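[job 4471] stage=fold_predict status=RUNNING
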Amino acid sequence: MNLRTSCRNQAHGVMAEQGVVVPMSDLFGAGGAALLDGLPLPADHAARVRALRAVTDTLDQQLTLLNREMVPRLTDDVGYHAIQKIGGIGPALTAVFVTEDPQLGKAVPYGIYDLAANTGWVDVGTDHDTAAFAVASIRRWCPKARRRRWTRAGT
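[job 4471] inference complete, writing structure tokens
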């Protein structure tokens, strides 16, 4: 999902760089596509936007296929429906959380939230030892949180 979001953000970046005001919330929806089709962008920027749209379209098609295949299998899964209530988590990511791999077992999400900084981290693994997994999650999260704070402080 991060690649899809990155492509969308890059397209918005190209629009901002060219001074294009995007009047709709979904640049990749029907209205956004019409806007993008009619823009007189420089050749290099137009090529970049075309490439980003192609990647996003391909990812959207794959997500649609995954949703079509996985969602019917999970209609009776209580965990699936519970995770779907969390905003911003779509059917495909929810399926990743609740689907069990025969060799690895079920994915287990753990979250860390820093109230003071209003930041968080969600880690997914297969280790059911809560303490060990929590320590590993914190070890991965702390350096990233520090880098973000230092980057913001330097700007």
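[job 4471] summary: The helical segments are 2-17, 30-37, 43-70, 78-84, 91-98, 130-153.
[job 4471] exit 0
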